[in-house]
Each structure stands twice: as C-alpha cells, then as structure tokens.
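Fig. S4 source data, part A: sequence.
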Amino acid sequence: MTYECFDLTIENNVAHIQLNRPEKRNSMIPSFWAQLPQVIEEIDAEAKARVIVISSTGPVFSAGMDLNAFASKGSSDPEEARRNKIRHGAAFYDTARKTQAAFNALEACRLPILVAIQGGCVGGGVDMATACDMRYATADAFFTIFETVIGMTADVGTFPRLVQQIPEGLVRELAYTGRRMGAAEAKSAGLVNQVFDTQEAMLEGVFAIAHEIATKAPLAVYGCKRMINYSKDHTTADTLDYIAIWNASMLQAQEMQEAMQSNMEKRPGDFVELPKRTPNFSFR
C-alpha cells in the first residue's frame, strides 16, 4: 500500500516508517492521522515485524499539525455561518479525539517503537515522540510545545505523557513559554536516550538498537512494554500483581530455554512470533 505522508519498509524484523514530506516540513495533514494508526495496527496485527523505527526526512523532523488543512471553510451566508459556529465545539472535540487515537496506537502497539528526531520537533511532533517507547535525537534537534504560541492548549497527548517522562516543573516551563528545548537539555532531562552528531549516525545507532531488540523473544519484549505502560498508571502493588498474573498465563518455558541455549551457543534465537491479532481488532 502507498501512503501519502510516509514510506514503509520492513527488513530483518524491523519496520521503518519514514516521514516523506520534507518540502512541507513533514507537517501532519488529515491523511497522516488516518494512515499512521492504520499502518501501526497492520504491522502489529499481522506480526510483520518485531520492532518499529520512525524517522523523518529533510532538516525538520515535523512541524506538527497542519492547521490550514483542518481549518473550517467560511460561509457568506449568515445563517450557515451561525450554524457552523454552533457545531464547531463538537466538531473540534471529534477531531481532537481522532488525532489522539492516532498516537494512542503507538502506545498500544505490542511492538517497541523507536523514534529518530532531527531538527525541529514541534507541536504534534512532540506528541508523537512522547508516545514512542524510546527517543533519539541529533545534536541540532529541538522540541517545542508550540501550541501556546498560537493560543492553543496542546491536546493530542503531550501533557499526560510528558509529565511522566521529565520533571513537571520543566513541562510547565516549556508549555507556558513555548520555548525550544535543545537536544542536550532533552537528554539531560531524560526525554531522549542518546544524542548523535548527525542524522546518518543517529539512524545507524537507532537501527543497531532496533536490531538488537529484534533478536529477543517477541513475547518477552511485549510483556516488558505492557508492564511498563501499566505501571505508569497503577500502584507498585497492583503492577506486581499484574506481572505475576501475566507470567502465570503468558510465560513460555520453551522460549526461556531457547533464549538461554542460544545465548550459550552464541547464535540467533529461534523464537515464536507474536500471534496475529483477530481480524476486527483495533486500538481505537
């Protein structure tokens, strides 16, 4: 399938989703919000890969949501204009929930998702990055909660995720001021895992990590992601109980034996792939 806003390749159990609109600063038009969760769900549901990498093209990772593409059309008819204004709140709510669902799909995906960020990561780009499992950046990368600058409150996922990733006071400063946070500061705060000198070096490093993850037992990696996500919203006691229940139902002795044996023999593990999702399964 051809996608309007990104290219997809899958090789050696690693899926690569690459934003491909550098001439538009990889802004997020309506088709982006529909197709991103679609491709994520398809990769996961069909067990087409074990890891997903998201990267971009050009000097800017993403300028965020293309507001012009979502702008409501004006009307010269006063009555129609009045009705559009009345419906606007409900329509905006539906649009916001749709865009939120696109990034919720990243978090709900069974596979780890790594994102490689170069240049500006603005507005919706920050929302997307925070929904990924791990973030990597070039030295010239920066993050901006840009919505404040244009008189909005970020609503696609920045706040509930970012406050779990960096100190709350820093989130407030970034949100209230709309200032840029550079890659070095982002790494110091814990938002990004590593900073690389160039995009080429970053992609090489990120794919090395992705391929390392892809050598591990898929069910074990899925369990790790599930438990980490669960622990963010639950007490230690609840999470420990859930882990025990998870392993009681999911733990596979054969996979553990294969993992230990392949490590001893210094060979790739022969692991069972995750089962395909049911045909009507959806994150949304």
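Fig. S4 source data, part B ends here. The chain has two domains: 6-214, 218-265.
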